[in-house]
Design a protein that fits this description.
Strand order of the largest sheet: 1-2
Structural class: mainly alpha
Largest sheet: 2 strands, antiparallel
Oligomer: single chain
Number of helices: 19
Strand content: under 5%
Number of strands: 2
Helix content: over 70%
Distance between the termini: 50 Å
């Protein structure tokens, strides 16, 4: 990439963050109850603009030099910077696709069940994009808080006791994680005088030996924070209730939130606490593989016992988080490459499965998405979409998830605990196939007349069905 092109791209790097923030302000001023059509149109146009911008940035990121945008023209490490490279550009593109899908699907009636849906959506997109772009640890915290505040409103959107309970657990988990994040950032700033990630890498590597214990403590606190965001066992118990109770378009966008936790792990623990970090070298590396195996096995068992399609989709999100951690935990370039491919695939597959859940709810009045015999789904497109989403979520050929899992399996051969990793990966894939096949047979092939025994109460998904 030439110097002139780097300068040109630098002017656009901040747009994925600035545009949704400005649009959110306009949407709040318009008021979605009074000018619903205008708010919907503006939200769709904003999401389409983000998709076009991210596509442009993704093409420009193919060069070797990253593009940097300094807020207020303050140079790093004194100012806050946004950094565009291939990985951040790829995540921007995935977020833009899911944001547009969420906004478009919500037009079926989901956005009208509460207030300020599209404004909250734009704020969450701004937080996600800012977190993927930032080159500063404190700005990462700020973007986390922005997207979390928006996600609280989106998770509650539509009301209901189950959503209130799930949101309460979600808020408590994340408030504790945010407090831990601040403590870790304060420790690092107190010892190094900077929170710029590139500058932190230099300062941590050059830190005296007597500071190593505090640096390691700060790094491990960050690992806990990112584990909460990524839904890593034993910090993942907020996931099923939160994702299952959220409306399908909201859950579709939430599919990329757990991936932000893994993305942050990759960024911080390869740049700041990587192999050249002195006394804090490869700080969390020994923990990723066993944590990934445990998360994968637990989520697979939970998926097999899911009682609704929404709960099954939520546990498959946790399965993907465990797979990503195993890939990162191999500590090899091959494992990291497989993780990035699987991250892209799992984000889209999980989002699609949540949208299919919304179509299932609309097609089974009274039964919703619970895995019990009910009205037969006569729409063939819903069945075809479920089949494709199931293949993608399970990581079966010929889709990219299969290629990514092969890469993870090959990388795991070189890691300690290779046998356990292979058992967890192959076993979870088999369990996911069985669970999805069971769900498909119940939803599409077993009419209500074959049901025996007392009826079950409607699932949370069925109570969130919009009027169409």
């Amino acid at each position: 990439m030439s110097a002139a092109m780097v300068s040109a791209v630098g002017q656009l790097v901040a747009l994925p963050f600035v545009l949704p923030v400005m649009v959110a302000g306009v949407l709040l001023a318009l008021g979605d109850q009074r000018r619903a059509r205008a708010c919907r149109t503006l939200s769709i146009v904003s999401c389409a603009g983000l998709l076009a911008c991210s596509g442009l940035l993704l093409g420009w990121s193919a060069g070797d030099a990253p593009a940097v945008y300094a807020m207020g023209n303050w140079p790093a490490p004194f100012g806050i910077v946004f950094v565009l490279d291939r990985l951040s550009a790829l995540m921007l593109a995935v977020t833009a696709v899911l944001g547009l899908a969420c906004a478009w699907y919500s037009l079926g009636g989901w956005d009208s069940r509460g207030r300020h849906f599209h404004a909250l959506l734009q704020l969450q997109l701004a937080g996600l994009n800012g977190a993927f772009l930032t080159g500063d640890l404190f700005n990462l915290f700020v973007c986390f808080e922005l997207l979390l505040i928006a996600s609280y409103g989106l998770m509650l959107h539509g009301g209901g006791v189950e959503r209130l309970r799930a949101t309460f657990h979600y808020v408590v988990y994340n408030l504790v994680a945010s407090s831990v994040f601040l403590i870790a950032a304060g420790l690092l700033y107190g010892m190094t005088g900077t929170l710029n990630l590139a500058d932190l890498a230099i300062e941590v590597a050059a830190a005296p030996a007597e500071d190593a214990a505090l640096l390691r403590s700060a790094g491990l606190l960050l690992a806990v924070v990112f584990a909460v965001k990524a839904a890593v066992l034993p910090l993942a118990f907020w996931l099923q209730g939160g994702y299952d109770s959220a409306s399908p378009p909201v859950a579709c966008l939430f599919a990329v939130m757990t991936k932000l936790g893994v993305y942050s792990m990759i960024r911080v623990f390869t740049v700041v606490f990587g192999a050249n970090a002195g006394g804090a070298s490869d700080l969390a590396q020994p923990w990723w593989l066993p944590a990934g195996i445990a998360t994968l096995l637990f989520a697979a068992i939970a998926a097999a016992s899911a009682r609704s399609l929404g709960a099954l989709a939520a546990q498959l999100v946790a399965v993907s988080a465990g797979t990503l951690l195993i890939a990162v935990g191999t500590g090899t370039a091959q494992g990291l490459g497989a993780a990035l491919l699987y991250l892209l695939h799992a984000s889209l597959a999980g989002a699609l499965l949540f949208l299919v859940c919304g179509e299932v709810v609309a097609s089974r009045p009274g039964a919703g998405a619970r895995l019990a015999p009910g009205p037969r789904i006569g729409e063939w497109r819903t069945g075809l979409a479920f089949l494709f989403a199931a293949l993608a979520a399970a990581g079966l050929p010929p889709l990219s998830g299969f290629v990514a899992k092969l890469g993870v399996l090959r990388a795991a051969l070189e890691a300690a605990g290779a046998a356990a990793a292979w058992i967890a990966l192959l076993g979870s894939t088999l369990v996911a196939v069985i669970a999805l096949a069971r769900a498909g047979s119940i939803l599409f092939w077993r009419p209500a007349a074959t049901r025996s025994g007392p009826s079950e109460p409607p699932s949370r998904c069925s109570r969130s069905q919009p009027s169409r």
